[in-house]
Amino acid sequence: TERKRIENELLKNERQFRELFENAAEGIFRTTPEGTLIVANPAFARMFGYDSPNEVMKEVNSIGRQMYANPDERMKIIAHLEKNDTIRNHEVEFVHKSGHKIWISINAIRRRSVAGTTLYYEGTMIDITERRRAERELIRKEKELQIKSSGLEEANTALKVLLRHREEDKSVLENTVIANFRELVLPYVEKLKGGYLNNNQRDYLNILEANLNQITAPFSEKMPLKHCH
């Protein structure tokens, strides 16, 4: 009776493990050191475009050569497993059955015999192709923003230089107008003020002086003409 109970318990556990294995969202695998796939669940097969685990195990006789985008990557993983026994969240590029490349995140462990020799490697895989694509798109957009930002900074710098040149040109123009006014106009106004003028002429001179003050005011407030009396 006790043996029967134990057998039933083992069968129950095996059935639960099988259901977990068959229904897992992650791809579950087991491979020999040489690269032969000896265990695969349905999620693993679907991940690479196969209809069933039997199909993928039948068609793939060398994981490194047929499934890795770069076979050297498997050798690096094996070297890591031989040294550390486990590898976590290792991202590798694989080849889908249809020929396009996909990105996979691997968690794997090395299983050893009592003598310490490697029996096989097993673990899980998750397809992270969409995440990698989103990351690349984000990087591309960041670069575009950097280029646009750099262009705006250059345009802003050019605008500042242009405005500075315009201010310099404006200052030169103002100084020229003021200098010409001092040299070509003001001396004659002063001569007229010192001469004999009748009332009408002096009124005209006052009007002329006021108008000249108004004209030169935008250029300089340092040179107002005094009205004649």
Can you walk me through this structure?
The chain contains seven helices and five strands. The chain has 229 residues and is an alpha+beta fold. Helix 6 packs antiparallel against helix 7. It starts with a helix and ends in a 13-residue tail after the last helix. Mean pLDDT is 86; it is low at 222-229.
Describe the secondary structure blueprint for this structure.
Elements: H1 2-23, E1 27-31, E2 37-40, H2 42-47, H3 53-59, H4 63-66, H5 71-84, E3 86-95, E4 101-112, E5 118-127, H6 129-194, H7 199-216
Antiparallel strand pairs: 1-2, 1-5, 3-4, 4-5
Helix pairs in contact: 6-7
End-to-end distance: 137 Å
Element pattern in H and E: HEEHHHHEEEHH
| Shape annotation | rod-shaped
Number of helical stretches of at least 4 residues: 7
Explain briefly what this protein structure is.
By secondary structure, this protein is α+β, with helices and mostly antiparallel strands.
Task: Considering the chains and any ligands shown, give keywords for the structure.
rod-shaped; 7 helices; 229 residues; alpha+beta
